[in-house]
Amino acid sequence: MDSQELQRLKNKYDIVGNDAALSHALETAVAVAPTDLTVLITGESGVGKDVIPQIIHQFSRRKTGKYLAINCGAIPEGTINSELFGHVKGSFTGAVEDRKGYFEMADGGTLFLDEIGELPKETQAMLLRVLQNGEFIKVGSSKVQKTDVRVIAATNISLRTALQRGEFREDLYYRLNAVQIMVPSLRERKDDIYLLFRKFSSDFAEKNNARKVSLSLEAISLLKNYRWPGNVRQLKNIAETVTALESSRALPGATERVELSREQLAPYIPDEHDELLPMAAPSQTGGTGLNDDEKRAFVQAIVDLGQKVERLEARVKAVEEARSEAAFPQSPAAADDEAEWQDQGTPEITIRKASDALIQKALERHGGNIKEAAEELGISERTIYRKLAKMKEEKA
Ligand SMILES: Nc1ncnc2c1ncn2[C@@H]1O[C@H](COP(=O)(O)OP(=O)(O)O)[C@@H](O)[C@H]1O
Ligand SMILES: [Mg+2]
Predict the structure, then answer these.
(1) pTM score, whole prediction
(2) Which of 85, 90, 179, 251 has the maximum number of C-beta atoms within 10 A of its C-beta?
(3) DSSP codes of every residue in 78-133
(4) Atom 17 of ligand 1, residue of closest alpha carbon
(5) What per-residue confidence (pLDDT) applies to 209?
(6) Which residues surround ligand 2, an ion (CB under 5 A)?
(7) Based on the domain organization, do 49 and 162 belong to the same domain?
């Protein structure tokens, strides 16, 4: 693909940036499009993964067929098999008639399975089969059906972890991973940050009849050196907020564009320090002083961290147990003391409690609606289900 073609592609899909890794991702998408290879898209949340499967579909011979995008993390575990593969009437309470699943609906087309790491094991087996030979069976049926679907999957970095923990089938991983397209994080393409900022500011200004915002060199450097845990999605949010607030603050009729200094931009960029301890830094705006995106990024970080700590904890415990059992067998009383001590605020427990509390608060705010709470926090519904199950277990 020459540079003109690449630029045309970016224009068509409203993609901004000159980063080589991003361009490589786009070129790979176009190159594999005409094949029927399964593609795995990887990259942190908010990097811009969603456009890749659309490009693949539209550059393929399947472009006249259906394109369906499914978020595996948003479908409850109990219904996911039926959603993907369909069910027959009477196969479970509420199955009042036969239903086609996405694999049947997308016959001849493309299925984009987002958050693939969230698939339950049983569903993974069914997916592997349909990838291997196009065969599937509806829930409650014994009839094998055929379909011709090209699968594109996406995941944030968590799939490797799921693999290591045995929660994701290795054979399925290799099957999905025939081609991998990596979308770089925003902090890996610093030179695109200001381009993106200007694009989002001018799009917003145009739509809302406001003035665009540009930045001084020092302000640009502030933007470039921030870590952007929520990637392009977070940058878009901040650019829009800045444009909305700062362009109305400028004197009417002053200039067409507003240029912000570093000091004027700084209040919109979260402190790196706040990212670690947002609850400890209430601001004049009240609450945590974080915008929605930052809250989401924080909650995701804390959930991830909590999981990491849990795993580490388990590993350390296993090693310690193996050691102490060999040396001095532990009395039950001593083990109890240890449990009590751990509950008094070791970091892992505190982190888990903080993330549980955030989830509970969000659920309260949304009257128990898990979907809305998950959306607000920017985590998958499945994560909330898991957390709830765990909390229940711990209470019991
Ligand atoms: N290079 C880019 N140019 C313009 N907009 C982008 C770019 N990358 C991402 N975006 C925008 O950022 C937001 C997040 O992208 P999305 O594809 O939803 O992220 P992901 O699926 O990786 O979580 C979307 O609004 C998307 O349009
Ligand atoms: Mg996405």
Answers:
(1) 0.72
(2) 85
(3) TTHHHHHH-B-TTSSTT--S-B--HHHHTTTSEEEEESGGG--HHHHHHHHHHHHH
(4) 48
(5) 86
(6) 49-50
(7) yes
What's 34's domain CATH number?
3.40.50.300
Residue 335 has pLDDT above 60, yes or no: no
Ligand 1 pocket member 69 (CB < 6 A):
no
**Predicted confidence (pLDDT) per residue in 123-176, tens digit:** 999 999 999 999 999 999 999 999 999 999 999 978 888 999 999 999 999 999
| Number of the ligand closest to the Cα of 25 | 1
Q: Which domain does 360 fall in, by range?
A: 292-325+340-395
**Does ligand 1 lie within 6 Å of residue 232's CB atom?**
yes
* Top-confidence residue, 229 or 384: 229
Residue 280 has pLDDT above 50, yes or no: no
Q: Whose CA is nearest to atom 10 of ligand 1?
A: 48
Q: Which of 112, 156, 236, 296 to mutate to test the pocket of ligand 1 (most atoms within 8 A of CB)?
A: 236
Which tens digit of pLDDT belongs to each residue from 77-105?
989 999 999 999 998 888 899 999 999 99
Which residue owns the Cα nearest ligand 1 atom 26? Answer: 48
CATH code where residue 233 lies: 1.10.8.60
Number of folded domains that form the chain: 3
Using the structure block, give the residue that is written with the tokens 């002083």. Answer: 289
Whether residue 192 is found in the same domain as residue 166: no
Is the predicted pLDDT of residue 183 greater than 90, yes or no?
Answer: yes
Is residue 195 domain-shared with residue 87, that is, in the same domain? no
**Cα separations in angstroms, 201 against 14, 206, 210, 295, 370:** 14, 9, 9, 22, 33
- 152 and 229 co-located in one domain: no
Neighbours of 138 (CB within 10 A): 22
The residue whose CA has the least distance to atom 27 of ligand 1 is: 48
* Within-domain flag for 139: yes
Alpha carbons 372 and 274: distance in angstroms, whole number: 25
